[in-house]
Amino acid sequence: MSTLRRASSTDVPGSTDRVVTVADVTAVLPGQDAAVDSLPSTDGDPGGPERRWKWLRLAGAVVMGLWCIGLAVYSTTIYNHDFLGEDFATYNQAWTLIGQGHLNPYDTIYHFPFIKGDFELIIWPLALVHLVYPGSVALLWIQDLAVAGSGFVVFLWIVDYLERRTVPWWSAAGVASVVLAVLVASPGAYQILYFDFHMEPISTVFVLLAGRDLWSGRRRRAWIWVVVALACGTFAAITLVGLGISALLAGRETRRQGALVVAAAIGWLAVVSVLNASAGSGITTYAHLVGRRTLSGPTGIAILISGLLLHPTRVIDQLHERLTSMYVLVKQVGVVGLASAWGFGVPVVVMVTNALSGNTALINQAFQNAAVYPFVLLGTVMVLVWTAQRFHYGWILAIAVALVVTVQALSYGVGLAPANVRFGISQVGAAPATQIRRALALTPADAEVISTISIMGRFCSRPHCYWFYPNGSFPVRSREVVFVFDPAAENQIPVADAADDIGAIAFVRDRLHARTLVDADGITALVWRPPVGTTRVHVATPPSRPGPKMRTRASG
Description:
Elements: E1 2-4, E2 18-22, E3 25-29, H1 48-81, H2 86-99, E4 106-107, E5 112-113, H3 114-118, H4 123-126, H5 128-132, H6 137-164, H7 169-185, H8 187-194, H9 199-216, H10 219-230, H11 234-250, H12 252-274, H13 297-310, H14 312-321, H15 323-331, H16 341-355, H17 361-364, H18 372-390, H19 394-426, H20 430-442, E6 448-451, E7 465-467, E8 472-475, E9 481-485, H21 498-510, E10 515-520, E11 523-528, E12 536-539
């Protein structure tokens, strides 16, 4: 005869110890939760319960697969409307050049070797896709797969948890259905996709895979995912610090692995810093916390850490200012999830990192907080199940809170997600998009391109590509230089507006005597053949404006 102990009320939601007594022998099985209810009945068909859970997982795979197809259609529409800016441009340039055999591409958008930007090594294996399909829309499809994949992994993790806690199957099926609905309705998913391509959604799926394997005791496979996640850049390493914290909090069976994950992530950040390979990570955006204007390299990190320790009130004040933004992120997946061990570490580390940046966009951009949504959703389910099973009438409280969370998440999602979808495909109209595609088709493959920043993405599948800024001086690296302007979309940088684009068009056409490729529906593209020996071109845009404040890549 075997018995299961009833877990203590002090156990952490999502804890990993389950004590089983068999013939007076007590053993601790790693990766198991304390069960409260009896094991499923094996009367009748012994394979029945297992088949039902299998069908539940299969249903989730079908829903997430269909969602992924829908996301790919959405991203393809954005791609065809050419609403792709500087971040898509930098990855498009690196992905294309690596796929063509240039293994150390230089990022002309942000002006450093790509490898030095954020040590995003994963772009090299991703470039193998270019050998099969060279269209840069493939990057957006990869991002779609990552977003839908993250949803599927967290769905599987939740179903695993419900099965392990011996939640009745029909109740588990109801919970799983709500989880799928919340994932599909989440406005964050669509906001991630309408803003270029980024590594944060890619790394999120690997962090989730690592977390699920740590939780279930598959340590060796978990470390494979940890390594892959680290290859996604420094912000992925920061996210892994949060995962390690969750593992530390979840119980003794994952505590050691959690400490190792934290150590590995911090060690990776140190290596990247020593290699000076984080030029695009935006550490300067934290300089205000220590009373400086800029920070860089290992010295900058040391100054930042010591300054935060000496002046903690600056951290507290800034976090207080950003509380509303953090609440907006988590309310669509259930705030209570932060009370779970597995729903706490990653979201808190990610949100605090972004909230402390002087760039307020980071805490408000969905892609930068991509890991917050699935982990808080997971934590919400864990907290509610734990509440229902720990207290005599806990199920009443759990159902009440679940209803509130579900109504809030779905009402918020149904109201905002369609608006996000419309936003992504409305920024560049159909007619201008047609002209942009004409300009793209007429641009020689070996030409240099200087473009309005918000539409430059697809033009940067080439070695030399720059975003236009007023009164700018640009390198001349090719026999032909193509200028592409969309004055109506010139709203992405504070130093430029539509008048600057219009002035630049007049200068390039009248002073440089460039030939017109496209001039319709608000889009102007001109090709210029610079005189022999020309190394730079200055594009005057009267009235005179200051040069640009150089941007950093949108990363934590």
